[in-house]
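Q: Could you fold this chain for me?
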Amino acid sequence: ALAFSASGLRALWRVDATKWLLVNRRYVGVSYAVSHALHAAALVVLHRQSAEFAGSLDAVTLVGGG
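A: Sure. Below is the predicted structure, expressed as structure tokens.
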């Protein structure tokens, strides 16, 4: 989200933080993606290893969250 809006934020607020974000938006975006991939992997592992956890979820909760 921040990586996507870096140029817009820089146009609104010309401060050092938005300059840094604009310069490093690729790394911010990759970090965000890696974080979400690790979180998804942890949920898959939990789902496979815990029958109680797996049984408590329906398809809507598993896909949409909640």
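A (continued): Residues 6-64 form one domain.
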